[in-house]
Amino acid sequence: MTTTHKQDSSVLEAARAGTRLPPLYRVLLLNDDFTPMDFVVAVLQRYFGMDHERATRIMLQVHVEGLGMCGVFTKDVAATKVEQVVSYARQHQHPLACVMEENE
Question: Which residue would you say has higher pLDDT here, 79 or 20?
Answer without folding.
Answer: 79
